Amino acid sequence: MSTTTTNPVFIGMDLGTFKTSVASSTGYRDVMQTAVGWPKDHLARTMLGRDLVFGKDLVDHRLALDVVRPFEKGALKYVDGKKAGMSDAQIKKHADATRLVVEYAVKMVNREAGRPSFGVIGVPARANMLNKKFILDAVDGVFESVAIVSEPFTIAYGMNRLTDTLVIDIGAGTIDICPLYGTYPDEKEQVTLPMGGDLVDEEFEKRLKAKYPNVQVSRNMIREIKERFGFVHDLNESATVQLPVDGKPMTFDITEPLKGACQTIVQPIVAAVREMIGKFDPEFQESLRHNIVLGGGGSQLKGLDRVIENSLKEYGGAKVTRVTDASFAGAVGALKLAMNMPKDGWTQLKKRK
Ligand SMILES: Nc1ncnc2c1ncn2[C@@H]1O[C@H](COP(=O)(O)OP(=O)(O)OP(=O)(O)O)[C@@H](O)[C@H]1O
Ligand SMILES: [Mg+2]
């Protein structure tokens, strides 16, 4: 290694569809939306006093901003930009947004001028070569070296659950499922479902508007209601909220549309878990079923752990737990991986071309 790389700051990054969390070997951690806002016009720029907006300010000033979420609905991280119907100009804008988010996040946790950043970045378990190249290109110049790994694997690594464990990472864009049995998991054994919290939000909005056509609700409000009340079990749950109609707040019972929307991801998860477990040898199936870990923001959905357990009853029963810190489990695991990474595990970005 050259002298500039002898004293790196190691960074673990969970570059999510909805949010990016970062943790560094110098002890900082941060979480922000995976989004960049550009002021819409000259007036907005003057009011905001800057050309780029990140983090919480994106919500506060959203009306004055052109906000780009580069990985919305898993685009570019999992689905190719072209297949997601994006033009070359849009792909370029999303690539710029990705680099800006990564740059900003790294600045928040590597505050030591002159020390290069070595980053481990989580991507969907079944992200393809094009998706990985998109990330590598976008972070070139921000990191000196990177390693790209599967998102659920970072969670397992951080928890030291490298064997007899099945991790389900329920994100905004994708749900990633990864079995751990003591070696690096083979890509082919992992599953990425092209759905997650964004899809639940879309579904909830559709069902809510079908039931109450006059309610006024933004996607942000939809997400916040889901995060507060979302549930997937059948018993004793009800949710009422106040929403405006023609500007006047009224009370609505949203139990059914919310439950229906949250449940859309349950069957696909259950089907994928059953299929995955069925492929392992019988003795190992038992231990996998009894060590299922839910991570990602979607792991917080009320009742999801029990519903998955119940769905595996006739297969011999299961034990499902949640990560203790859904926001940082991936980033902290990625940081631990970075600090233990052998030299040949890194891709040195400058040398790539
Ligand atoms: N309490 C909650 N109940 C239900 N969903 C929640 C809750 N908290 C967060 N979420 C949802 O979790 C999703 C974000 O999860 P996470 O931050 O793990 O995703 P991500 O890493 O950005 O996405 P991905 O891993 O797909 O790229 C959002 O859809 C968010 O609304
Ligand atoms: Mg994620």
Topology:
Blueprint lengths: L8 E7 L3 E6 L4 E5 L2 E4 L2 H7 L8 H4 L4 E4 L19 H22 L7 E7 L5 H11 L5 E6 H8 L4 E8 L4 E7 L9 E3 L3 H15 L7 H11 L10 E6 L2 E6 L1 H9 L2 H13 L3 H8 L2 E4 L8 H8 L8 E3 L6 H11 L7 E2 L5
Parallel strand pairs: 1-6, 6-7, 8-13, 13-14
Antiparallel strand pairs: 1-2, 2-3, 4-5, 7-15, 8-9, 9-10, 11-12
Helix pairs in contact: 3-4, 5-12, 6-7, 6-8
Bound molecules: adenosine-5'-triphosphate and magnesium ion.
Describe this entry's structure for a reader.
The chain has 353 residues and is α/β, with parallel strands linked by helices. Among the domains are: 152 residues, ATPase, nucleotide binding domain (Nucleotidyltransferase, domain 5, 2-Layer Sandwich), CATH 3.30.420.40; 28 residues, no CATH class; 67 residues, 2-Layer Sandwich (Nucleotidyltransferase, domain 5). The chain has twelve helices and 15 strands. The strands form four sheets. A six-stranded mixed sheet has the order 3-2-1-6-7-15. A five-stranded mixed sheet has the order 10-9-8-13-14, sandwiched between helices. It has a two-stranded antiparallel sheet with strand order 4-5. Helix 3 crosses helix 4, helix 5 crosses helix 12 and helix 6 runs antiparallel to helix 8. It is globular, with a radius of gyration of 21 Å. The mean pLDDT is 92. The site of magnesium ion has 7 residues, from loops.
CATH topology of the domain at 3-37 and 66-157 and 328-352: Nucleotidyltransferase, domain 5
Q: Whole-number average pLDDT? A: 92
The name of the CATH superfamily of the domain at 3-37 and 66-157 and 328-352 reads ATPase, nucleotide binding domain
For the largest sheet, list the strands in their spatial order. Answer: 3-2-1-6-7-15
Bound molecules: adenosine-5'-triphosphate, magnesium ion
Biggest sheet, open or closed, and with what strands and sense? 6 strands, mixed
> Which CATH architecture of the domain at 3-37 and 66-157 and 328-352 is right?
2-Layer Sandwich
